[in-house]
Structures
1.
Amino acid sequence: NWDSINIEIAIHDWTIALSNKTPTEAYCYFSNFINPLLDAFVPLKTPKTISGYPKYLGLLHDRLKRFHNMAPNCDSTHSLRPASSSLPGIVDSNGSILLTNRDKASAFSRFFSKVQTPPMSSPLPLPNPSTPSFDIPFISIGQIVSAISQLVPKINGSPDNIPNLVYNKYKLSIAWNMTISAPKCTVLHLGRLKTSSQYILNGSIITPKKIVRDIGIFFSDNLHFEHHINQIAKKARSMCNLMLRSFLTTSPSIMLKAYKIYIRPLLESSTIIWNPTAIGLTNKLESVQREFTRRVLWRSGLPYLSYTYRLKRFHLETLEFRRATNDMFFLYDSVHGFVHFDTSNFYSISPLTRSLRSAHSLRVGLPYVMPSSFSTCASRSLTLWNSLPNPVVTMPRISYRNTIKKTPTYTVGSSRIKL
């Protein structure tokens, strides 16, 4: 009766029972528990020959030798040893003989150790608190998941669901029996309030930092992206130097194609998050493309041209224009439902109360007054989006993007770069 055996073993709290025992004592305890259980629920039959056993029993006999070496002088070891005249075995549901009596302990230990059934009761007394025991929680997984699910709606105050993301990862680690690596975790305090709170994970104090990197972006405690811009500009400039040293060609088209593939994506990754509004940071990003086009012009043996004419000759746009274009694309996708996230803290649809010929019904407004030193995708594109004609904002997605690219006045109101 496999169900009854499963229930009897599952309700026994093995953690408490074996916590203070040596390997020899644990083996004896398990053997004394298993023997009467097998006598009660497993019928026995005497086989005629040993040839009827499955082939994989040789592996089980090797495991049994290890058990015997761990407890060679144990009485339970001899009680599990079968008689030389006959080998009793477990009768399967189809009547075939599977294992010897000695193999039962090893097979049952392996089988029931994989049964994911939490202990329902403890037949043994609880240990003394001063007695060392295994460091395991006494709360079931269901209780933890239930408590977390009740906390999530109360603390979810950020538009990008950061608390939900953290707790979902924690629940996933519990469900898959994976531990979160404490050395890879950091604490980032946002805001001007200085706190001395310490956070502990798995007994280790999580180190607080002023700058952390997540999904390829450096976030600082004041949510300024100056450090991130300095890092990507430095990396892009070093890659420009490496590429120009590696290529022997003097063809501008080949070098520009390599620039578009390997270097420019570094300067445009996730720009809707960190697109700067400060003049100094904007010029620092633009200086990478400005210097690269100047070196390509010199290497090709062409006469010197200003940055504006170099862009026209090489058919390039300024990085500022491309970032503004990405903002306008993302705002269109958000308003029309192509991307799904909570927009209540970013913008709200605010059509005018009175109709105007140049107004459209998809005008957006900010839910709060934002400081001049901060910006979002909606705040940067607010004026330009609201000034677009109604036929433009209601275009299909591809047509809208082509129109925005061909009309710079729809994207950048006034340039802040040094040409």
Note: Residues 226-246 form the longest helix (21 residues).
2.
Amino acid sequence: MHRFLIAAFLMLTACGTVTVSTATPRGPSPSPQRPAQEQPVASAAARQFVEVVQTVEPVAEAACRRAASQDNCDFLIVADDRPGQPANAFQTVDSRGRPILAFNLALISSVENPDELAFVMGHEASHHILAHINRMQDSASVGAVIFSGIAAVTGANADAVRTAESLGAQVGARTFSKDFELEADRLGTIITARAGYDPVRGALFFNRIPDPGNRFLGTHPPNSQRMDVVRRTVAEMGGR
């Protein structure tokens, strides 16, 4: 089970959307202490994370309720403390359908300002608001049916049909993934601005991640295209 960690000394608001936990020591030896100069940096990153959560979460939940596309708009925002993970954030739902936004420690410590963290948070919340998980599952199902159907009518054996079905599901799931990312960038821009952050400054986070380019069946659009969406959305909002 994934463990979620945030600095225990930080004051949390009554909404309680940041999960706090501690790991149980496995042996008598104390954990190695981090260098003293790293501790203030980690503490500042943790405080910034909590502050951004407290500011962005109510705005994202209000946007979710206005969209009326989801039954559950009660976001649970957590920090994933698994070690050795590359910087990442993702959106999922739990067994009861509650939306979860997870940010690992590498990402929390890598953002250069609260605008970047707010933009990433708004983007991930937008995936839920826009029902992207459900829409991707629908696309995968359609792709599986089409590919397996083609294989069946061409006389393929059962194994080939199953292979075609699996391939079709993958193709179907990826077909609209770039569009989903751009949709989330657009709504994420609006959420970021409404929360009082600068979405253009926040989207500069793209400049520090690998550019996926415009690959066929890639999952993410080029970074330049994403920046264009952010700038256009801000312009449509009248500058903010």
Note: The longest helix spans residues 38-67.
3.
Amino acid sequence: MTAQPRTLYISALSGLALCAACVPARKFEEVKTQQEQCEVGFTMLKNHNEELIARITELNQVLSNLTKRYEGLVTDTAVLGKSLRLMKSNYDALNETYELLLKNNKEMLAGSRTEADKLREELQNTLNNLLKQQDSLNLFEGEKEVKPKEGEKSSFSPTHPIVNKSGDS
């Protein structure tokens, strides 16, 4: 081929390629509008994603705080439960000791009353013996009989409060 037809051939091919490669203006505008819409949508989704990430971070902090409080409450409940069981055990032991103390106190009071009655009876017997001995001593020595005159009372009287068995004073 000569230079002229060759140039013509290249020009024709170039023109054909140019025609085939050209996009109509309407199609170009549609694609451009779609690209702008996609960029706006992408920006909106990106902003929404950032907001959601911030919200997730915030909720994770709240969850962390609630978890710490929950663990604290569980520990506190365990301590209070242990304390309550110990206090109940101590209360039961104290109540048992109190019941034993009441029982011992009743026995001791009953024993002291019996002992007081015995001592009162012994004192009465001793006093009676002393009065008898004094009377026999007075008779033995030949002294006057110890008889109280009318209106006088003997200092050793069976109705004396110490001697009186009934405990009246």
Note: The first helix runs from residue 3 to 21.
4.
Amino acid sequence: MAEEFYFVNHSSYSQTVPSVTEDLQSLYGLDELAKRVARVDEFGNKKKMRQSYKGHIQHLPGKDVLMFRKKIIRDLILKPQENKMNKLIEDLDPEILEAAFKFQPEPISNVMLALTVLVRSIADTRSSATVCLMMCGIFLRISHVQSKNKDDYREIIDLVNFRGPDGSRTVEIELKNIKLEIHCSVLNLRGNKRTVLQPIRNDYGDILCWNGEVWGGLEMTFFDNDAIQVMKAFSKFSEDILGAFCNIHGPYSFIYFSKKKEKLWYGRDCLGRRSLLKYVCSETDDSFCFMLSSVSNGGLLWEEVPANALYCIDLSQDLKNKFEEKKIPYIYDFCYPKGLYLNYPYPLMNTSLEPVESERLNTYVDEFYYVLKQALYVRTMSIPFESVNQPRLAILYSGGLDSSVLARIIHEILPVDEPVDLLNVAFEYPHVLSAQKKGSKNLNLNGIYDCPDRITGLNAYKELCEITKNERPWRFVQINVSYSERNCYESTIVKLMYPNNTFMDLSISTAFYFAARGHGLLKCLDNSLIKYNSSSKVLIRADEQLGGYLQHLKRYKNGGWSEVIDELSCNISRLSYRNLGRDDRIVSHHGKEIRYPYLDENVVKFLCKLPVRGKMDFSIQNGDKLLLRRLCQKLGLIYASKEKKRAIQFGSRSAKMEVNNSKKVNGYDKLEKNY
């Protein structure tokens, strides 16, 4: 199957697809269509032929261009004698065909966008349109055979089970002088279908714990279970396990034991979107213990597994007090020997400072829209539809630029009658409490939760309803967290976020903890508020690399574009070191999963290839995040397009909850031991 076998769901396709899907299905069948799409993808990768078609298109005016594009589809997909299908393709909406040629840098490779629209539509749009997905909590403990089991890790098992409330399983293995205890819990994101428990064991005795999603890279049908398909890929590449990872797109952490080779593989995706922690205790032979887990109990020896490499341990070695880990790092150079390195799925950042004229910027905006919409499509339509009244997803919604764009594009993807939860978190302002205790006469208790994100959220929500003509039941959920409630959960949050342990980690984690829990007040059409608990298992979060932070502007003012490029280059190189593992531990504790469309591999790849001034221009007003602002404006969100970037801990005021601190706290200060 073609590597990128998913499509952009144009708003106009709904009028076109229903009239042809039945004919497509009866004439070809899904498998034959998939083969033909794959053939086109191969054609698109032949540079000489691609350039030939491209040259023709560039020199054809007006209607002839459209006709030529239809001819390409006919030539590549349809046999000349199939006149019925030729007519169907001729009747396709021009906007769909136009979209097929707007992808860069390989537009012809994506010419089959129109056909993939039709293929995808064969599957019921009310159910999972890509693969069967599950989120998991994973745990491994290795100790000497003669050592006695200790209960010090039972608390960790309980925390792992919070991540997957739909089922769990434990597998125990004994080798020469060590024993392995492997435990997984599962969150079922497949609707009413049977839960596939993990760990998964194949016919060779190999064992896999997989916490992640495969958005691309493996040959999968619409309803395959991704963990099972990953295990099949590992079995296929048993002599070269790294070969299975070369093309997997998506977030993951994993543990894989090869019984024949007695080797243990583990790691995270190169962007670190899923958590995996490591614990090594080697004081004496008897107490030797090695653990891997999605979450810890806050013990001091736990550390995060770096996301810039995969790791392998030879369990057949003579183990005394420690393991020797083999590290296979990610690199950008494609010339190194196979098996020693993994390649990043995106290039180094384009540091060109060439001016970008208005017309070219508009093209970048269009292309950004399409690639972001692809990322959102696979992350939303893969969630099972259960009922009209139950949202399949929720957006962490501040009303800022990033989350507003996501909400607006999601409106074009999901059926218009489906509700979407907009989760907006605000913390009680402790200074108001102090004033209340002192008996201040000018106290406004009505504004106790009027933090910046609440104000922008309500304004952006109003604009979103207007621009979408109130067609969709947007559910703006006001999550209000009192100072006392926050304090009740502080110890739990500190434990979950560990080994991250700064005041900034605490304020960010606190905001995500209560936002993900989803307990709040629903704003109704008549502006009344009712109690509401968001049941959405999937949260969509904004996290991007478009120069929106104050630090970028400061660097520009201090040293010009060279300073900005240095900062942006550092940001790209540090993508694998971002705190996404921490956020995964926090959100997943509620049995929910967080997804990052802005960090989709294809989105990151697209943005890395753009010149710097095609993404931001600090020489003009509101030039930060210029590309995203222009897209926001194009989508009709004028208010949201003017918003400044604001970190969640400041927008929600979770950073201002330390009212009892006698000294000024720096965000990077370590938490004191009494936490």
Note: Residues 13-122 form one domain.
